[in-house]
From TrEMBL:
<feature type="modified residue" description="4-aspartylphosphate">
    <location>
        <position position="53"/>
    </location>
</feature>
<dbReference type="InterPro" id="IPR011006">
    <property type="entry name" value="CheY-like_superfamily"/>
</dbReference>
<dbReference type="InterPro" id="IPR050595">
    <property type="entry name" value="Bact_response_regulator"/>
</dbReference>
<protein>
    <submittedName>
        <fullName>Response regulator</fullName>
    </submittedName>
</protein>
<dbReference type="InterPro" id="IPR001789">
    <property type="entry name" value="Sig_transdc_resp-reg_receiver"/>
</dbReference>
<dbReference type="Pfam" id="PF00072">
    <property type="entry name" value="Response_reg"/>
</dbReference>
<feature type="domain" description="Response regulatory">
    <location>
        <begin position="4"/>
        <end position="120"/>
    </location>
</feature>
<keyword id="KW-0597">Phosphoprotein</keyword>
Length: 122
C-alpha cells in the first residue's frame, strides 16, 4: 500500500511540483493550502510524512507544526519544512516546534525525495 504524504503550501505551483515528484515516486498525496486547511484534512487519516511551507496565510508553518504535534495520532509524524526561509532563527523555531528537516526553495525534487525516504514512517 502506498504511503501518504501531506503537502502544505499556499502556492499552487509548489504543491504541483512537490505532488508530481511524490506521486512519481509512488506516494499518495494530500494537499493543504495553508496550516488551517491542512489541519482540517488530517482528521484521523494515516499520514506518513508532512511537507510544509513556513510563510502561509491563516496559519503559518511553525504554528501548523506545533498544532500537529499536539494531536496524539500525529505526534510522531515526521515534518519537513520546505521554504524560502534560510535564516538560522527560523530553522531553530521549526526544529523547536518539531520539524525534522529543512529544505530551502528552490529545491531539487531528488533532494526532497531523498529527505522524504529517509524520514518517512514505516
Amino acid at each position: 500500500m502506498a504511503k501518504t504524504v501531506m503537502v502544505v503550501d499556499d502556492s499552487a505551483s509548489v504543491r504541483q511540483v512537490v505532488g508530481l515528484a511524490l506521486r512519481g515516486a509512488g506516494y499518495e498525496v494530500i494537499e493543504g493550502i495553508d496550516g488551517k486547511d491542512a489541519l482540517g484534512k488530517l482528521k484521523g487519516q494515516k499520514v506518513h510524512l508532512i511537507i510544509s511551507d513556513v510563510n502561509m496565510p491563516n496559519m503559518d508553518g511553525i504554528t501548523f507544526v506545533q498544532e500537529v504535534k499536539k494531536l496524539p495520532m500525529y505526534k510522531f509524524t515526521p515534518i519537513i519544512m520546505l521554504t524560502t526561509e534560510s535564516q538560522e532563527g527560523k530553522k531553530l523555531q521549526g526544529q523547536a516546534a518539531g520539524a525534522k528537516a529543512w529544505v530551502v526553495k528552490p529545491f531539487q525534487p531528488a533532494q526532497m525525495l531523498a529527505a522524504v525516504s529517509k524520514l518517512i514512517l514505516p
